[in-house]
Amino acid sequence: MDFVVSQILTGLSLSSILLLVALGLAIIYGVTGVINLAHGEFVMLGAYGAWLLQTQFGWNVLASLFVIFLAIALLGWLLEATVIRHLYDRPLDTILATWGLGVMIQQIVRLTAGGELRYVQMPPGLSGSVDILGATDSAYRLFVLGVALGLFALTWSIYRYTTFGLKLRAITQNRAIASSFGINSGQAYRATFAYGAGIAGLAGALISPLKSVSPEMGTTYVVDAFMVVVLGGVQSLMGTLASSAVLGEASGLLAYFSNDTIAKALVLVAIVIIIRFRPQGLFAPRVRA
């Protein structure tokens, strides 16, 4: 029983990180159709923001979350307004542009903060462990799980139950018809990109006490995020949640019997096979003919 509970908790911890990283990408990709290869750099900037606020002002991670969200969301808003908005309906150009932006951000961070590893301390009140049904897990990892689920619930509520969410769904289904009803797709895309970037920054800040912070850390996370979004199905927030859970639990179980590298490779092979036979993803919404 202890083993089962321990593996479930390990899988949930991995799932929460995947959900945090993938949620912003799922919003941007699902609504705007932009394949944002700079998403990992937004995560990295959030981690560096937590490190900077800790070293320069003495703020712990919890105190810095709101500031980091606003700062990265503002950066996303500016990038959409100056670069991305000119490239809609040009997927290859957006791939190249966002890749270039990611490289620029990474090199700017390397030049200003250095290339060495940085570390962020755990919040004092969450540095201990919690016993659950005989198994022990980090209090901070459980906190991250709660935040990830809370952010998902907030995003889902905005998307499903607000006027802004209704406009987003209309634009996603048919932008031309939505525009004919007076919906400003440009403003909606800009707000969506900013919100997705802000969530990515939050993810980086929350992950920073668990991982070392470096200019290259975003590369790994953007791959993980795309795996979650593709497996769950584009335009499906519930699919993102479900695929995060599936991939997290599968990775945790496979890593227990082998190691992290083999587990990631096996998961990637499984995703390739699944997408071969179900390219729309496992949890894509049904579309009426």
Structure at a glance:
The protein has 289 residues and is mainly alpha-helical. The protein has 11 helices and 2 strands; from the N terminus they run ααααββααααααα. The mean pLDDT is 87.
Structure commentary:
This protein is mostly helical. The protein has one domain. It has eleven helices and two strands, in the order H-H-H-H-E-E-H-H-H-H-H-H-H. The protein has a two-stranded antiparallel ribbon with strand order 1-2. A hairpin with a 2-residue loop joins strand 1 and strand 2. Helix 2 packs parallel to helix 4, helix 2 crosses helix 8 and helix 3 packs antiparallel against helix 8. The protein starts with a helix and ends in a 12-residue tail after the last helix. It is found in: Cell membrane. Keywords: Amino-acid transport, Cell membrane, Membrane, Transmembrane, Transmembrane helix, Transport.
> What's the number of helices?
11
Helix content: over 70%
Give the strand order of the largest sheet, numbering strands 1, 2, ... along the chain: 1-2
One letter per element, helices H and strands E, the order comes to HHHHEEHHHHHHH
| Radius of gyration over C-alpha positions, nearest whole angstrom | 19 Å
Mind sketching the topology for me?
Layout: H1 2-32, H2 39-57, H3 61-82, H4 91-113, E1 129-132, E2 135-138, H5 139-161, H6 163-173, H7 175-180, H8 185-207, H9 217-232, H10 237-257, H11 260-277
Antiparallel strand pairs: 1-2
Helix pairs in contact: 1-5, 1-8, 1-9, 1-10, 2-3, 2-4, 2-8, 2-9, 3-8, 5-6, 9-10, 10-11
